[in-house]
Request: fold
Amino acid sequence: MQLQANEIKVSYQGKIQAKYWHKINSSEDAAQLLSAHWDQDTISLHESFKVVLLNNGNKVKGIYEVSKGGITGTLVDLRILFAVILKTVSVGIILAHNHPSSTLKPSEADLKLTKKIKDAAKFFDVQVLDHIILTPDGGYYSFADNGVL
Reply:
């Protein structure tokens, strides 16, 4: 009997050359980028959760949609989130989700999830730079700017 196991290959390939990656300098930069990449047809319909993946120069490697939910919430599986972060060898992240209700205040669930992700990120030396809440009317809330992060 021969012992067998699948070989695992991990890779990341971006389509945009690094020299063209957008640099995030502020929460406003992040909110504008996220808004431009959010489906405006569904931003007022249901919550989605995304992560902006950054290199050590705060340049955007990509944006990944982690989950889509209902009107009042979405579930975020930390294993999937960190699989994406680690696969892309990202050193910084910006979390983001939308509030279809246009409420800019983070919920208790938003605060708990952000803390849970931030605590887990420490184990991988990944810095959570911000958590942005977007609203259908173009508004945004930055956890970092408001001292919540």
About this structure: DSSP finds three helices and five strands in the chain. The mean pLDDT is 93.
